[in-house]
Design brief:
This protein has two domains: 26-154, Tetrapyrrole methylase, N-terminal domain (Cobalt-precorrin-4 Transmethylase, domain 1), CATH 3.40.1010; 159-280, Methyltransferase, Cobalt-precorrin-4 Transmethylase, Domain 2 (2-Layer Sandwich), CATH 3.30.950. The chain contains twelve helices and ten strands. It has helices at residues 2-7, 16-20, 60-67, 80-83, 106-118, 137-146, 159-167, 196-199, 215-224, 254-260, 278-281, 296-300; strands at 44-49, 71-74, 91-94, 122-127, 151-154, 179-184, 204-209, 232-237, 245-250, 267-271. It binds S-adenosyl-L-homocysteine. S-adenosyl-L-homocysteine binds next to α7 and β10.
Length: 301
């Protein structure tokens, strides 16, 4: 650890962070396999992770490319403060997605990105969290590659790590967990198709995205496959924001507790012994009624 510290460049490198990666890398350095034969007038798509909700958790790279965007194409969970970082004249297009209420189907989003880039635009495609974690970012990039559109991926803090930090739950505290698994709890035909024996193994932390509706199934199956009903489990609504709410319980009583608390999406579920550490390590306690950090989509809906 000390060695790592010694190697870190000084943070005060005189504004060098901004210059470290050019806003628009040379075309040969970006894009997919076919990116060598790019027409000179084609634009570029930045696939940008907006982080888990709190706008201050955006990366500097993301803020830089947003500030230069001609068009910002954004999803439901992106904080309005982040969309506002674009130039006043930048076009803003809201494309998504509440559960089963897609504003634009995925193939139309893909086609939109291709069209805007072919028009020569500097496009920022803003997605909640990290674009490659349950974000369909890969599919969007496949469409860009198929059309020889240059692109760059700007990672973001994914909900699991951002929310665990703000809930005071170290996901791999070595006294409790040697692994962490991210899964989607999205229901398909009323069921959750997960590898239950693997998820129910002790000594790990399981983080479930999109799991609120399926919460009773999730807890029931984990217990049925061997986890003790007393296993600590938490559900966090609007984590990292001033509206963060955390319910800590056990697998046996989390569904009831979440129901009583009338939690609403977005929520993240964390299962495992690490949840106990929140008692000692919880540090973020937003005051109810504090200024709201609302998803930009609420303005656009
Ligand atoms: N690409 C995103 C995940 C998109 S799926 C990422 O890397 O975070 C959307 C799911 O993420 C939500 O249904 C919820 O489970 C979780 N999520 C995102 N933001 C959240 C927040 N602020 N609080 C709780 N859960 C959140």
């Amino acid at each position: 650890m000390d060695e790592d510290k010694r190697r870190e460049p000084p943070l005060s490198a005189g504004g060098r962070i901004r210059d470290a990666v050019p806003a628009r890398p040379p075309l040969y350095a970006i894009g997919g396999a076919g990116a060598t034969a790019i027409a000179a007038n084609v634009g570029i798509v930045y696939l940008v992770g907006a982080g888990p909700g709190n706008p201050e958790l955006l990366t500097i790279r993301a803020a830089n490319v947003i500030a230069r965007a001609d068009v910002i194409v954004y999803d439901r969970l992106v904080a309005r403060e982040i969309v506002a970082l674009g130039r006043p004249g930048a076009q803003r297009i809201y494309v998504g997605k509440a559960r089963s209420n897609h504003t634009l189907p995925q193939h139309e989003i893909n086609a939109l990105l291709v069209r805007l880039a072919q028009d020569g635009k500097h496009v920022v495609r803003l997605k909640g969290g990290d674009p490659f974690v349950f974000g369909r970012g890969g599919e969007e990039i496949e469409a860009l590659v198929a059309h020889d559109i240059p692109f760059e991926v700007v990672p973001g803090i994914t909900a699991a790590t951002g929310i665990a930090a703000y809930a005071g739950i170290p996901l791999t505290h070595r006294d409790c967990a040697h692994a962490v698994t991210f899964v989607t709890g999205h229901l398909k035909d009323g069921t959750m198709n997960l590898d239950w024996p693997a998820l129910a193994r002790p000594g790990q932390t399981v983080v479930i995205y999109m799991g609120l509706l399926g919460l009773p199934i999730l807890c029931r199956e984990l217990v049925a496959h061997g986890l003790p009903p007393t296993t600590p489990a938490a559900i966090v609504q609007q984590g990292t924001t001033a509206q963060q709410r955390v319910v800590v319980a056990t697998l046996a009583d989390l569904p009831g507790r979440a129901f009583d608390a009338r939690l609403a999406p977005p929520t993240l579920i964390i299962v495992g012994e690490v949840v106990k550490l929140r008692d000692k390590l919880g540090w973020f306690h937003p005051e109810p009624g504090r200024a709201a950090v609302r998803p930009a989509s609420l303005a656009a809906d």
